[in-house]
């Protein structure tokens, strides 16, 4: 899934039509390898994401929110100094290279504009973001390269030089059919995809396999078995180059049966046939944003929340084991009446008990059959009265146990539901701020120990903000504590409250007493999406006015009871949720 040179070419053309002429308003560095440029212009505003990660190097417009670190890194501060207020003039790409240059007109402290370039290199482990002046002198870079192991030095104060071209490889855009045929004669016994990958630059392994499949119906086709002298492969190769030259790109994402993205490309991929699905995207930015950003955010949150998740899962598992034992004990109390009956039978038949006997056989007046006899175990060392008292005591103990076990099981099930809701919150968390609030909630509920506060206190996050297609404001809580605050304190009594039916999820509030049908359905979709039923199909969502939502006595954060509700069926729709989101 690399961002190859051809894919970058299509992306450059798309971005050029969207951001040229726009000014850089803000610069963020939410992650070590990620820079966000907030752009504004006559046509509106955009956020340009630039990543120099070894496995996810890319550039594209993004709609996802990002959190600033408590203190901006030095490279971010430098970019703010040189780029805030700069206007984007042009985007260029060296031929067949995974390098994109953004030419800028940047003002200095006196307001005098000068030319600067932001060079983006998407080269795997050595991916980089480099800022140069008008003479090509490096002002600074995200990743400094130098030393004996590097042939090219990238350091502040040096002249910027482009990455060396791949030795022994041909530029596919400069190859003619005659050159192709001459090179093909030395292909030997190699498979088509490996020969393409080793012979030409700018082609990713995915595209090489695709060309092999399009030519011969096999991604592992051996060239020595080609009966046409490679003409089919030649035809598909030049068709792909023509597609690139004319800008007829088809951005698409390849996903598995669970709708998890596996790869992407600038052209429709056919090699997977029915094994994977291929979905066309509206553009390169939409493709890359959907493929990488959500996936990367999920991975970062998962990594940072691993310790908290482990603590909660351990607590949940302990509670589940405890509940299983309590259920077993409760089953045993179901036969408690037999203890009382044995005590009554012993009391009525003291005269039948013989000294040293271990079993009493006496008429069972509790049985439907008048002639029934019950055999009761007795202790030969105890008196008849003591044996009867033993059974009465067992009955009383079982009766008391049933009462307390029923209460403990009910409380345990509520606590288990709460822990499941916390795990669901963590899975839906979008950043460190959300995780901090969840940890704060767990400290209040006693599952985590409070730690010493640092100098900087993370500001409290706000509920997620949406705007329906008809312009109505919709709010959704990010965690249990925020759900409580949103529903019980912030929302007006006449606002409409929504929540998935008997499923953990966010509290959703529609501003106003009588929302239109479109707003109501879109709010239900939001409630379904931000719940544990996100990956499911149709989800029942209850809705009522806030006045009918109450906090039960002793209820954990996020737990409420409600009345006078109706139910609407909604299907989680990520695209719709992203389109409606405003903050």
Could you describe the 3D structure shown?
With 583 residues, the chain is an alpha+beta fold. Helices cover 37% and strands 20% of the residues. The chain has helices spanning 5-19, 74-83, 177-184, 192-199, 205-216, 231-245, 284-304, 306-332, 336-348, 384-428, 432-444, 480-490, 517-529, 574-580, and strands at residues 23-31, 34-41, 44-51, 58-61, 87-92, 99-107, 113-121, 128-132, 138-141, 252-255, 261-265, 277-280, 359-363, 373-377, 464-467, 473-476, 496-500, 508-510, 539-545, 549-550, 561-562, 566-570. The strands form 6 sheets. The chain has a 6-stranded antiparallel β-sheet with strand order 15-16-18-17-19-22. Strand 1 and strand 2 form a beta hairpin. Helix 5 packs across helix 6 (231-245), helix 8 runs antiparallel to helix 10 (384-428) and helix 9 (336-348) packs antiparallel against helix 10 (384-428). The two termini are 30 Å apart. 33% of the residues are buried.
Which keywords apply here?
37% helix; 6-stranded antiparallel beta sheet; 22 strands; alpha+beta; 583 residues; 5-stranded antiparallel beta sheet
């Amino acid at each position: 899934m690399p961002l190859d040179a051809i894919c970058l070419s299509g992306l450059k053309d798309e971005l050029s039509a969207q951001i040229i002429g726009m000014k850089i308003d803000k610069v963020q560095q939410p992650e070590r390898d990620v820079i966000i440029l907030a752009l504004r212009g006559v046509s509106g505003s955009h956020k340009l994401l630039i990543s120099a990660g070894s496995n996810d190097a890319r550039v594209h417009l993004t709609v996802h929110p990002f959190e600033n670190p408590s203190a901006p890194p030095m490279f971010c501060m430098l970019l703010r100094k040189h780029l805030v207020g700069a206007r984007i003039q042009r985007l260029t790409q060296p031929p067949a290279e995974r390098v994109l240059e953004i030419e800028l007109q940047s003002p200095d402290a006196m307001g005098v504009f000068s030319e600067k370039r932001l060079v983006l290199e998407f080269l795997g482990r050595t991916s980089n973001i480099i800022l140069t002046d008008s003479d090509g002198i490096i002002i600074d870079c995200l990743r400094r390269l130098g030393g004996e192991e590097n042939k090219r030095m990238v350091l502040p104060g040096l002249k910027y030089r482009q990455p060396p071209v791949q030795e022994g490889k041909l530029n596919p855009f400069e190859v003619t059919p005659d050159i192709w045929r001459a090179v093909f004669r030395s292909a030997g016994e190699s498979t088509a995809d490996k020969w393409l990958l080793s012979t030409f630059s700018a082609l990713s392994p995915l595209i090489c396999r695709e060309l092999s499949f399009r030519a011969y119906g096999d991604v592992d086709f051996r060239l020595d078995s080609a009966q046409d002298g490679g003409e089919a492969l030649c035809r598909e190769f030049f068709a792909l180059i023509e597609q690139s030259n004319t800008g007829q790109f088809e951005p698409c994402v390849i996903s598995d049966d669970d709708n998890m993205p596996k790869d992407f490309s600038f052209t429709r991929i056919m090699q997977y046939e029915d094994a994977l699905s291929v979905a066309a995207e509206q553009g390169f930015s939409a493709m890359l944003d959907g493929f990488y950003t959500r996936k990367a955010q999920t991975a970062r949150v998962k990594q940072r929340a691993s310790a908290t998740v482990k603590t909660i899962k351990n607590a949940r598992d302990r509670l589940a084991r405890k509940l299983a034992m309590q259920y077993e004990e409760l089953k045993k109390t179901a036969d408690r009446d037999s203890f009382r009956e044995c005590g009554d039978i012993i009391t009525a038949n003291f005269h039948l008990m013989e000294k040293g006997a271990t079993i009493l056989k006496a008429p069972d007046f509790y049985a439907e059959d008048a002639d029934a006899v019950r055999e009761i175990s007795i202790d030969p060392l105890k008196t008849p009265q003591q044996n009867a008292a033993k059974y009465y005591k067992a009955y009383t103990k079982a009766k008391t146990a049933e009462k307390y076990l029923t209460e403990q099981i009910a409380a345990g099930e509520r606590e288990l539901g709460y822990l499941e809701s916390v795990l669901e919150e963590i899975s839906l968390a979008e950043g460190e701020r959300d995780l901090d609030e969840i940890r704060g909630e767990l400290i209040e509920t006693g599952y985590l120990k409070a730690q010493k506060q640092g100098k900087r206190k993370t500001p409290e996050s706000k509920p997620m903000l949406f705007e329906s297609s008809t312009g109505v404001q919709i709010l959704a809580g990010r965690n249990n504590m925020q759900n409580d605050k949103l529903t019980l304190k912030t929302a007006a009594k006449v606002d409409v409250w929504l929540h998935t039916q008997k499923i953990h999820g966010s509290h959703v509030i529609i501003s106003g007493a009588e929302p239109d049908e479109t707003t109501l359905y879109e709010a239900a979709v939001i409630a379904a999406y931000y719940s544990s039923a996100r990956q499911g199909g149709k989800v029942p969502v209850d809705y009522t006015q806030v006045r009918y939502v109450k906090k039960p006595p002793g209820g954990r954060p996020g737990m409420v009871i409600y009345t006078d509700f109706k139910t609407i069926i909604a299907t989680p729709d990520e695209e719709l949720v992203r389109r409606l989101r405003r903050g």
